[in-house]
Automatic annotation (TrEMBL):
This is Carbohydrate binding family 9 domain-containing protein. The lineage of its organism: Bacteria, Candidatus Eiseniibacteriota. It comes from the Bacteria. Residues 244-340 form the DUF5916 domain. Residues 158-167 have a biased composition (Polar residues). Gene3D superfamilies: 2.60.40.1190. It comes from Eiseniibacteriota bacterium. Pfam families: DUF5916. InterPro entries: DUF5916. Keywords: Signal. The keyword Coiled coil does not apply. Residues 1-27 form the signal peptide.
Length: 764
């Protein structure tokens, strides 16, 4: 039986590997931790062969990027792993190569599908092609050459949804791994010039130690990632792409539903459509989609909604709406494209001219013309009429610290409309401070059914629901204001957010689920770094304070409805392991009654220490408010999850969320719910995969005598076979079924579905 090497032996081997890191050595060397982060990449006389082998003579004159530093687990620590990046270019491509050292047998390089490389080791680059310190592409690959990409926008979360065309190859070696990139300039957007400059950084992420390294050092003492990028300067003879892309598709689907006690299959539906992308200028891109199909979208995971006061947010997953979504992003969620439920077509213009970013979106939604329960279609003035969506966005970046923007949204459905206009801005000052603000105004016109209902005969009118009589075309409007102040540093961060939404504010194109409220939120967190080689890496103490007020009729004059204070402490260990605990003290006022004080304790942990199993859990327990009964209660809500890596090709995940709510008055149950979900996938090749998902949903309600009064159960099964040659060229085959049941009896199949989709991307 073999024994693990002592810790000091690992250290000596890593140091030796670092010293042994070699590559063709005639190119200039730029050492990141010495702030040598401005470089002129050499123009290569011969393009390197992209085969995952960084040993050919074509790399001899490439610039050598060395001296990487950690951003985590301990900021500023110099690279001890051994990482070298090579950079060069020609008239068509930017070429990048990585040589990464690792201890024998410890490279984590699973064979995964595109955009799912984050469970293992990976390398990548950030390219700020406009050189405006506001936005960048990130283009990454794992040691097998599998790609992942997206867009980083200053002030927003990373957007993994866009897909770009570039070539990568990688291989695992005895010393570690090597990866090569060829990034076509036609895949980037930038202003043409005789000498072009990009913002640039090279990145390495080692899963085993949770080490995340940059060539150009990144520190939390400076607000903004893009302000800290290095520079690729003086590239000549290159031009951005204005390529034409045509992406036709065909789908076929067949569905069955239970009717009159039996499953009945409808006629198969065949559908054709296409997407078109064209670079109108070097910076502006037009996207058009006709009868778009979204059958490849993975189903939303079930959520626990047995005691919710407000709508639940589901993320957008549809490719047409995702691409360029960062341009439409604002401090308030005023563009939420899932409001466009069943688009007939979509047209979009996105890009940047100089320092001005532009986005325009127009779409028709067929779902607005569906039947209204209780109102005959023949008299319904809105039936079979599409809703029209229009969104326009402009943002001006004055320099890397200041940007101002405007947004207009409009949804119309016959005489019904919702219009929103907004102004926003973002300002970074004194190195570590950032303030963001937005002010919005909405105008509404509700449906008007007065003439329709007046013309109904008595036999029809008696069956019309009473609430339709209140739809009289009422006009309304309101305001929404938000402001955020953020301070970041290596040891301390502070975030304060203020949001004021009047009762009349509505956005049919966005997601604002709590009108008529004024909210104040503060988040203070610290960081205490551990000793190198110690038991823990760093500790984060966190305090969150939230106050929520009813807006009131005249300004912010309503009363306090929710107040919470949540101290928490998180300890990070090596092996990507973290443990957190805390308590939430709440006071609530609801339906004229005070619920205070309430205490909820919580505990969570997760670890990435093992390759095959990466588990985690979260559990909260304590007081709650039962909103449907305006009564005090208590609940326990556990959640467990695990990522499964059973082999290099076989992966999966498991999660289970549950809750049990009891009444304080007699300890009787109010509700119970449990949702286990299992996903298993097998990657035959980087292109060909099969994925299976099963999810069980069981919800129960009880009366005050602890007797069950309602139960609904659903079992979902989804099977998907995918062949993804490259973004836009794909074949999907899928099958799904749903079995449902109530409080008694067995489950019955309620629907089945089969579908096929094939698409091909032409680039011209």
């Amino acid at each position: 039986m073999s024994r693990p090497l002592p810790r000091f032996t690992h250290t000596l081997l890593a140091a030796a590997a670092c010293a042994a890191l070699t590559a063709p050595a005639s190119g200039a060397t730029y050492v990141g931790h010495e702030r040598q982060i401005q470089l002129e990449p050499p123009r290569l006389t011969q393009a390197p062969t992209i085969d995952g082998r960084v040993d050919e003579s074509e790399w001899a004159n490439a610039a050598r990027l060395d001296g990487f530093t950690q951003a985590r687990p301990v900021e500023g620590v110099k690279d001890t792993l051994g990482t070298l990046c090579l950079v060069g270019y020609d008239s068509s491509n930017l070429y990048v190569a990585f040589r990464c050292r690792e201890l024998p047998g410890l490279v984590q390089a699973p064979i995964v599908s595109r955009d799912n490389i984050w469970t293992g080791d990976w390398v990548g680059v950030s390219i700020d092609s406009y050189h405006d310190r506001q936005r960048s592409y990130f283009l990454c690959a794992n040691p097998r050459g599998v790609q992942a990409d997206g867009v980083d926008q200053e002030g927003n979360e990373s957007d993994n949804s866009p897909d770009f065309q570039y070539t990568t190859k990688g291989r695992v070696t005895e010393e570690g791994f090597e990866v090569e990139f060829a990034i076509p300039f036609k895949s980037l957007r930038f202003a043409p010039s005789e000498r072009v400059s990009f913002g640039f950084n090279a990145i390495r992420d080692q899963r085993r130690t949770n080490a995340h390294l940059y060539w150009a050092p990144v520190t939390r003492n400076i607000a903004g990632y893009h302000r800290q990028l290095g520079d690729l300067e003086g590239m000549s003879g290159i031009r951005p792409g204005r390529n034409l892309e045509i992406n036709p598709y065909v789908t076929s689907s067949d569905a069955a539903e239970r009717r009159s006690g039996a499953m009945r299959w409808a006629d198969a539906e065949h559908r054709q459509g296409f997407g078109l992308k064209y670079g109108i200028t070097s910076a502006l891109t037009a996207d058009v989609t006709v009868t778009p199909d979204f059958s490849q979208v993975e189903a939303d995971a079930g959520v626990l909604d047995v005691n919710e006061r407000f709508a639940i947010f589901f993320p957008e997953k549809r490719p047409f709406f995702l691409e360029g979504a960062d341009i439409f992003s604002t401090p308030s969620s005023l563009v939420y494209t899932r409001r466009i439920v069943d688009p007939l077509y979509g047209v979009k213009l996105t890009g940047k001219a100089g320092r001005t970013a532009i986005g325009v979106l127009s779409a028709a939604d067929r779902s607005a013309g569906e039947s209204t329960p209780g109102l005959p279609d023949r008299v319904n003035p809105y039936f079979d009429h599409d809703a029209q969506f229009f969104v326009a966005r402009v943002r001006r970046d004055f320099h890397d610290r200041l940007s101002l923007g405007a947004l207009v949204t409009n949804r119309t459905h016959e005489d019904v409309y919702n219009r929103v206009a907004a102004l926003d801005g973002r300002w970074t000052f004194r190195r570590s401070w950032t303030v963001t603000a937005q002010s919005s105004r909405s105008w509404d016109a509700a449906p008007d059914l007065r003439n329709t209902l007046a013309g109904l005969d008595s036999a029809t009118a008696v069956n019309v629901p009473g609430h339709l009589a209140s739809l009289s075309g009422e006009r309304a409007g309101g305001w929404a204001h938000t402001a955020n102040l953020r301070y970041t540093s290596r040891r301390f961060s502070w975030n304060s957010n203020f949001e004021d939404i009047t009762t009349g504010f509505r956005t049919s194109a966005g997601f604002v689920n709590r009108p008529g409220t004024f909210e104040i939120f503060h988040n203070l967190s610290g960081r205490i770094d551990g000793r190198k080689g110690g038991r823990w890496q760093w500790i984060e103490p966190v305090v969150r304070v939230q106050q929520l007020y009813d807006h009131g009729e005249q300004g912010v004059s309503g009363k306090l409805t929710d107040f919470s204070t949540r101290p928490e402490i998180v300890v990070h260990f090596d092996g990507s392991t973290a443990l957190g605990t805390g308590v939430n003290r709440l006071s609530s006022w609801y339906a004229g009654r005070a619920f205070e004080p309430q205490f909820r304790q919580f505990l969570w942990a997760e670890t990435g220490r093992w390759r095959t199993l990466r588990p985690g859990f979260f559990v909260s327990n304590g007081s709650t408010v039962i909103f449907a009964e305006a009564a005090p209660g208590h609940s326990i809500a556990p959640e467990v999850w695990a990522d499964l890596r059973l082999s290099e090709r076989f992966d999966g995940s498991f999660s289970m969320t549950a809750t049990r709510i009891r009444r304080d008055s007699n300890d009787s149950r109010y509700a119970e719910a449990v949702i286990p979900r299992l996903r298993l996938g097998y990657q035959f090749t980087p292109e060909l995969s099969v994925r299976w998902i099963t999810e069980w949903v069981d919800r129960r309600r009880y009366d005050e005598n602890d007797a069950q009064v309602a139960r609904d159960r659903t079992l979902g099964e989804d099977l998907l076979v995918s062949y993804l040659l490259r973004p836009g060229t794909v074949v999907y085959l899928g099958y799904g079924t749903r079995l449902t049941g109530d409080e008694s009896g067995p489950l019955h199949a309620s629907n089945h579905s089969l579908f096929m989709k094939a698409s091909y991307l032409w680039q011209m």
